[in-house]
Amino acid sequence: MYLKIKNKLIFLAVLFILIPVYLFGFSHFTANLKEYDKVSFERLEKILEMDLNPVEANVMVFDNIKEFCSYTGAPYWIKGFTNLSGIYIQSKSLLNNEYKKTVLHELLHWTIKNNCSLPQWYEEGLVCIVTGETENIKSIKPMENPEGFTTVNAENDWDLLSYELGCVKKVKKIIGEVEY
Fold this sequence. Notes:
The chain is α+β, with helices and mostly antiparallel strands. Helix content is 53%, strand content 11%. The chain is built from eight helices and four strands. The protein has helices spanning 2-23, 33-36, 38-48, 65-72, 92-95, 99-113, 120-131, 157-175, and strands at 26-31, 57-62, 80-83, 86-89. A four-stranded mixed β-sheet has the order 1-2-4-3. A hairpin with a 2-residue loop joins strand 3 and strand 4. Helix 6 packs across helix 7 (120-131) and helix 7 packs across helix 8 (157-175). The N and C termini lie far apart (59 Å). Residues 18-23 have low confidence and may be disordered.
């Protein structure tokens, strides 16, 4: 009896993994920040002044933008995002040169979320400081009050960039310039 129940549970678990893969085209892997980019992991530890646990994340990479948007409900201009279930990334071929940067950005979020509790704007600022992804953006005005913004309500990529720039500006005011 126990084996029948165990076999049914295994069957159901496999089914729940295979059905989304069949219905929604994506690949899946696990990663942690320390193995993916040790330098960024150490930068984050230095900024936070704490030892971090390199927590494994489930990363789902979708075959195309339609599948990404259908499965996640995210708008087409979002490259990826992190929630309590894992990391969701748009198509590797679509992101092209941005793929590895996007995975790194989301692994930083995952690591922070699983090691400490920070306001979303502060977390976003730290992630962008560690990656340096906003350093050369001069044509977009930083959002004045990023702490009052929710990324779900962003209307386009420009809103997100303004938010990120505002977060970086505010975090740098708090922690100062960071030297690695």
